[in-house]
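Tokens for chain A. Residues wanted.
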């Protein structure tokens, strides 16, 4: 691995502050690779050879059953997949593909398990990652089971628009089919829900969304920290 590639790797949260010996062990046999959009990165049922860390771009994690498919999560810079499979040395329960052109750091699975046993700082980092994943899953299940499809969409839009209330206009960062799958909504229902949100302070044109009335949208969404706050 070239020095420039090592610099990129050392900037990732997973590797910051680790012992030099741990970093050397993790990066020995590691790969820093680019993949084009739509490239399949891991496949459900396969045994893990690497822990994947997202350096640039977005990754869709998805599951298949017969001829059906659903989006489980969308990951961005600094996030990993799929630690549980690597840690237990069990088959992947999900697949992943690049939503955009991506750059990934692939850490050998065996090295991840060995460093976990020998470096408390790395073990703590992995445990925190697993804990965040569990809490995210609980929030996702609650969101799917307790809310209507319109309420789920309203909360997703509210969360993204609130990143910058001074300019409450943003582009959906992936295609609407992926958004529908992530929210557990059929594509045709998503289209009807977007139309219904016009009465709740939302204007949509293609992938562009503008929240024109936060109060009306929040009145519909009724967000709660236990489901909607990533930091909760």
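Reply:
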């Amino acid at each position: 691995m070239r020095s420039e590639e090592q610099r990129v790797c050392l900037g990732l949260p997973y590797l910051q502050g680790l012992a030099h010996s741990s970093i050397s062990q993790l990066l020995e046999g590691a790969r820093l690779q680019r993949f084009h959009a739509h490239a399949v990165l891991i496949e459900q049922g396969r045994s893990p050879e690497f822990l994947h860390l997202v350096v640039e771009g977005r990754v869709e994690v998805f599951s298949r059953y017969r001829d059906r498919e659903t989006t489980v999560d969308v990951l961005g810079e600094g996030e990993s997949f799929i630690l549980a499979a690597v840690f237990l040395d069990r088959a992947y329960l999900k697949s992943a593909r690049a939503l955009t052109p991506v750059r990934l750091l692939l850490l050998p699975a065996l090295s991840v398990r060995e460093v976990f046993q020998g470096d408390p700082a790395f073990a703590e980092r992995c445990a925190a990652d697993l804990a965040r994943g569990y809490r995210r899953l609980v929030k996702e299940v609650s969101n799917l089971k307790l809310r209507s499809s319109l309420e789920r969409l309203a909360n997703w839009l509210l969360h993204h628009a609130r990143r910058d209330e001074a300019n409450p206009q943003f582009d959906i960062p992936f295609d609407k089919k992926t958004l529908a799958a992530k929210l557990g909504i059929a594509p045709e229902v998503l289209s009807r829900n977007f139309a219904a949100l016009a009465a709740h302070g939302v204007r949509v044109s293609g992938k562009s969304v503008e929240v024109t009335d936060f109060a009306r949208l929040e009145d519909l969404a009724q967000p709660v920290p236990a489901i909607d706050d990533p930091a909760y």
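The first helix runs from residue 3 to 10. Residues 3-128 form a domain with the Jelly Rolls fold (CATH 2.60.120.10).
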